[in-house]
Amino acid sequence: MVYEDHVLVRQAPIELLWGAVPSARGGQSKLGGDHFMKLTLRSLLACAALLGSMGFTGKLAAQGTSARVFMFHETKFYDGQVAATSDVYPDNFRDMLEFLARRGYNVIPISHFVEWHKGNTTIPTNAVVLTFDDNYIGNHEFAHPIMQELVMPGCFFAHTGYVGVVTSRDHGDWNELNFTEKWGLVTCESHTVTHPYLTQTSNLNAELVNSKQAIETNLGKTCKYLAYPFGDYNSTVIAAAQAAGYEAAFTTQGGLNYQSTPRYELKRYGVGIDVTLAGFKSLCGFTGTDTGGPIIVDNADSGFSVRSGTWSTLGSSTSNYGHYGSNYRQANIASTESAVARFTPSLPSTGYYDVFTWYQAPTDPYLNTAAALYRITHKTGTSTVYVNQRINKASWVYLGRYQFNSGTSGYVEISNQASSGSYVCADAVKFQPVSSTAPTPITPIIVDNSTAGAFSTTGTWSDSTSGYPYGTNCKVALGSSGSATATATWTATIPRHGVYEIGVWFTTSNSTYRSANVPYTVYAVGGNKTVTVNQQDSAGGAKRFVSLGTFRLKAGTYPVVSVSNAIGSSTQYVSADAIRIAWVANAPYFVSDNTSGAAYFSTSGTWTTSANTGCYGTNSLVAQAAGGLKTATWKFNLPVNGVYEPSVWYVAASDTYRSTAVPYTITYNGDTATVYQNQTINGSQFNALGQWWFNAGISVPAVQVSTNIADPNDYVSADAAKMTYLGPQ
Ligand SMILES: [Ca+2]
Ligand SMILES: [Ca+2]
Ligand SMILES: [Ca+2]
Description:
Blueprint: H1 12-17, H2 41-53, E1 67-72, H3 90-102, E2 106-107, H4 110-118, E3 127-133, H5 137-150, E4 154-158, H6 174-183, E5 186-190, H7 204-219, E6 225-227, H8 235-243, E7 248-250, E8 269-270, H9 277-283, E9 295-298, E10 304-308, E11 312-314, E12 328-332, E13 340-343, E14 351-358, E15 372-378, E16 381-387, E17 397-404, E18 411-415, E19 423-426, E20 428-434, E21 445-448, E22 455-458, E23 462-464, E24 474-478, E25 487-494, E26 498-505, E27 518-524, E28 527-533, E29 546-553, E30 556-564, E31 573-576, E32 578-586, E33 589-593, E34 601-604, E35 608-610, E36 620-624, E37 631-634, E38 642-649, E39 662-668, E40 671-677, E41 687-688, E42 692-694, E43 703-706, E44 715-718, E45 720-727
The structure holds calcium ion (CA) (3 copies).
Residues 593-595, 615-617, 619-620, 719-720 line the site of one calcium ion.
């Protein structure tokens, strides 16, 4: 579903804009391949400081004369619910932001944009501002983690009367907005109190004043900007917004912003459900070659063709939803193939591509076939893959890595030959160029009750085949009116630290047999989190993975989810079936190198610069143990309190020159720990030292290495250190 091998090259202006950023890229991580190294945190804090004081003088090679502001709304896919036309699904959102990074667009904070508009500072060319209206939960669960990973700032416009309120959809609460503010990338601004038409409400002043006040009280900051609900405003509304103290206001009219654009009528391009990556490029005014970017063939593109049979075109976004672009094609299944649709990309170069497919989500997922036949014709033949179109909908689903020739000789076909469901869906196919050695994408992990070695129980459970189980059956247990007497646990292998969405599949029944209060526990970073799920469904089956939310998970193999029968009833039952763990974003991380400057790296004693092959950045340091103790210290400016994993990069050498037990001392939250690393092996990669709770800020020397080793003739290598954020307490 996602790939690691992108070459995400951010152009220089963003670093200059955001302050003096020591080189944080140029190294090779253990993930292999070129990939974008995160800007260090000081760049973010420098950004905030600069924007706060507006002390930025501008060292940019080129200054922009206009800026694009984008307006998103919900960035989550709701399986089983009707979509809104303003939704953008997470994988599509990620495609858009990776395009901005890849092509050197400069995503700037909203405050920087407004200060430029006032004439107080400059902006780079290709300046972009990301805004999100309505404070939907998906902005916190999906958009923000992706923005953290790509280091892109933005603004959430919240209508404060609905903060933390569940309507047909959930909205971020004040804790979530506080977390977002503190992280430092996304700021919360006003979208009024109740989201009225401001030209029609009788509470115009209260809507403007009370929303601003609520944000300032709850977030401890000054609220400066307003987005008009429904884009509805007139001269009276503008005057009221000015009187309430707003410095700028945003409409829903598309267009570029110039310094001559009225400050209370700033324009925004809306990005909604029908906008493909190609459509987003158009909104960006991009007409060049997107080297390294994915080649996406939608069913509406010229690369799509019907080879045989009847393929209906569907796509009303309020009835058949979850599709890519404005519509999709659908064929009735048949026991013998009678309909084939083909997606033919025009590939820029011969090489390896990761291939993904996208399909829509019918209201009843069982209308889709559980085994759609895909044929991938590539450089060395044709490969066959079956895809369960009932799950992983509205996202890029991985079909594998294949070699293709440049041009149009390769393609993906979808057949209607199937034995389950009613339809097969042909919607879009993506070809992502990769190197042959790039890590393969993380596909959603599904652990069923029948998965060998990964499902365990305590207490009494029995098999059940009724009510649409995942796979062939599920387990059911009688409930307990007191504490739990039966538990079921799913163990999974999490490939790397990051943010994951967890869904659970269960079989439903009425209130006689199922509970509305089934406690699932997720073993996330910082502690267990219990989510109560309603397993009653008079419609006869959930038939889908019901989301427990998004969680920060560590890499490794361990119990990830459990469910118990502590439902407050000894007559109802609990269903334990399958779980799905879907990758959302990598854990953010921050690198301090030996070249990062005195605030982030310092030494005592004599160290020698060494440009050994395999160093991080341009060089590394070495010091011999003989002749007195030497130390090297890395510091980090951490954005939020939380659990972090420090790791260190050194240049390994033979026993003649390196020690097998080099002490690293970690200072965390008022305490220290010492961990030893063998510098004769595992060089030129980040090696984890452990996981500890760190407070935000730069008050402690987080990682220190010393020459306190056994052999005085040995040397110690000091190069770079990394701090990976795993999650909150
Ligand atoms: Ca489509
Ligand atoms: Ca099952
Ligand atoms: Ca270095």
